[in-house]
Amino acid sequence: MSNKKIDKVLRVFNIIVYSLLGLIALTAFLLVFVCDQFVVSGFSMSPTLHSDQHILVSKLSYGARIYKKYDFDSPDLSCFRMPGLGKIEVGDIVAFNYPDPNKNHKIQFRINYVYTKRCIGIPGDTVRIVDGFYKNSRLPETVIGVEAKQRSLREMSDSILHVRGVVLRAFPYNGGLKWTIRNLGPALVPRKGSVVRLDTNNVHYFARAIEYETGVRPTVDDGIVRLGDKEVRTYTFSKDYFFFGGDNLFDSRDSRYFGVVPADFVIGKVVGAVI
């Protein structure tokens, strides 16, 4: 083969290699900063989303989450967020990392454990469930989610719910709050800088978030709330949180059962379906 032919082959080869590398780089850029694709598993967002449906999650909407460390075997998340086009609003459908992936009642991170739910409360909101209906104190007349599902929950008897395998008890499961998925709250969604007064009942609602921030879980001893060996009457949150709920209230593992979700766990906004 002549030198000219060899040079031509090498040029073509280089073009192909650099094109492939460029395509890989562009794909990585899009996945990290712009948009990702996930497959819905289960029926928690029915009838809005369906099992096996491919959905597009925009990272531009709230800002892409950038990891500071890449040890994804660690339950601790270290990251920062790029500027986004907007902020999470009540009613948005959001993809986020499930906050209790190890089933040990602690907020911990696992990269591939992704949930998709509707935002019921943003940082600083007070949320309730009243006779089966999601309520937000800022939007008292707004129906958040699928009205028909919430009406069914209100009208269905406890006995039928038990037969269907629906768990009525809601988070938190200890203390004196005794919330259910039919009547829950008022529950504050913590905001960075929020100061909450702790008592022997509400401390159980805030306990996971406080432990996530401090590494120490608050306890109740003889009617006194303690953080480690120190008595505490108030706590100031250092992070933002969200309250998420499924549209299918009969078959959804969400904040009704595991509490609030740290803002850092948010991946992006569901903006469409591929199929």
Overview of the structural elements:
The protein has 275 residues and is α+β, with helices and mostly antiparallel strands. The protein folds into 2 domains: 1-33; 40-273, Umud Fragment, subunit A (Ribbon), CATH 2.10.109.10. It contains 5 helices and 17 strands. The protein has helices at residues 3-34, 147-155, 158-163, 203-214, 255-258, and strands at residues 35-39, 54-58, 65-67, 79-81, 93-97, 114-121, 126-130, 133-136, 184-188, 195-197, 219-221, 224-227, 230-231, 234-236, 241-245, 261-262, 266-273. The strands form 5 sheets. A 7-stranded antiparallel β-sheet has the order 1-2-17-5-6-15-16. A 3-stranded antiparallel β-sheet has the order 8-7-9. The longest helix has 32 residues, at 3-34. It is globular and about 90 Å long. The mean pLDDT is 90.
